Amino acid sequence: MLDLPELKVVKPSDTRWLSHERCVKAVKASYSAIVTALNNIYEQTHAPEALGISKALCRPSTLVAIYLLDYVLPQVAKLSRALQTERIDLTAITPLVDATLNTLDDAMLPAANWVLELMDAKNEIEEVTDITLTTESIATFQGQVAEPFIRMLKANISSRFISQDIVSSFGIFDPKKVPAADSSDFHTYGEDLIDVLLAHYGAELPAKTAGGDEYTKEALISRETREEWKTFRSYLSKKPKGNLHLQLKELTTSDMLSEIFPNISTLANICLSIPVSTASVERSFSKMKLIKTRIRNRIGQSQLSYLMKIAMETPETLSSTQLNDIITVWNKKPRRIAV
Predict the structure, then answer these.
(1) DSSP string spanning 240-252?
(2) How many angstroms from the chain centroid is the CA of residue 178?
(3) Residues 146, 149, 151, 154: is their CA dihedral positive or negative?
(4) What is the rounded distance in angstroms from the CA atom of residue 77 to the CA atom of residue 159?
(5) How far is 242 from 42, CA to CA, in rounded Å?
(6) Spans of the chain below 70 pLDDT
(7) Which of 60, 67, 70 has its CA nearest to residue 129?
(8) Phi and psi at residue 15, in whole multiples of 5°?
(9) Measured between alpha carbons, how far is 229 from 252 in angstroms, rounded to an integer?
(10) DSSP string, 77-94
(11) Is 0.70 topped by the overall pTM?
(12) CA 232, CA 180: separation in Å to the nearest integer?
């Protein structure tokens, strides 16, 4: 009747805060339909809940807040989703955070996108509510509510990434970013970032001798680390241009590289152990609940581990070669039923 898309209003969850974005988006898209439906419910049943919700939605401050949140929440959600990827590029964290903060700044401008959208919907909103929107009232809301809210949100985001410069320094291990060996930048590439990493991770740690005497030692030997980096930099420049994750994994799994570059290998281990987010842990618990159900509660630990690895590590699609390899491995073990 109102020519609006059919949307389900999602209930926001405290543990899944991204649901707030979908909820706000659905309320904004179906605002007129929701207000009309609530008024009809109250006229027919005199339900006080319908009247209360309708009055709350018809407040100017509520309406303007909906349009503001519809602009702000997707920006924060993009950053959150990027950080939840399984193999995030650590060097991209700083640009992502900076871009999000700059976009939030735009929400405080007098001609921000959400303000223009609100003014475009002015006539439709005034048909179903008693709200009268003016440029002055929106400007007042921006100054009294929107700006303090966005400043607090930016401060919260910034406080969560106080070490982003240190994390971004691990980008020197990315083979794609190493300059050509004959370029002028090659002989100094990464040395300043190695110093940043040494300043943060090269603290002295307590240790004991074989006889039990206590002493302190450097977690990373500064002079040796700098010398190792000069050699490792040349090694990176001659390698095929892979990605950062594969290079870090090679440093931690190759006995030869660990022997030649012990301090650089230690930095790689540190980088791979940085918990960017808990998304992968939460996904593993969700998978476990899907596999070990009430009906399958007697499944053994070993079998559960195998099934979870299959569920979490297997790609969505398998090539015919991969399928044939799986069947070959399966058939190596004698079974009663032929496959």
Answers:
(1) ----HHHHHHHHH
(2) 26
(3) negative
(4) 17
(5) 63
(6) 1-7, 14-17, 86-87, 203-219, 276-279, 335-339
(7) 60
(8) -90, -15
(9) 15
(10) HHHHHHHTSTT--GGGHH
(11) no
(12) 14
